[in-house]
Fold this protein.
Amino acid sequence: MSIKTVQNIIHKKAITVQCQTPLAKIIDTLIKSQQTQLPVVNNSNKLIGMVSLMDCQKALLHSAYHCDQPVIVNDIMAKDYTYLALDQQLSEVAIKTQQHNENIFPVQHEGKFVGVIKRVDLLTELNNDLSLCSQRK
């Protein structure tokens, strides 16, 4: 396996939602982006959570049943999430993320959100490395 890092496959123009974003806007953003999760950042671009389609679905069901006040991202986002660093090797990332169901992993550098890597991109790189190994035989 070649020594590549998160830096090699990061998506720096990642779609995020700001803290305090209303539920309807989160859902709209998730649907339009065709992503299952989105990083949540504050005004200083610090990563503060992740919000998923499942989080939104649960909130919709709960809100509809209880007719609660409007839900915002801070109410439903996961505050416990796996994040990566720019200098982490992809082999390390593959090991670290195999126990998680997420398909998008936020990347932080010096305490700030800088982008995401997608599991599909990680798999593509790992598969490319495997293909290179096969060609050497």
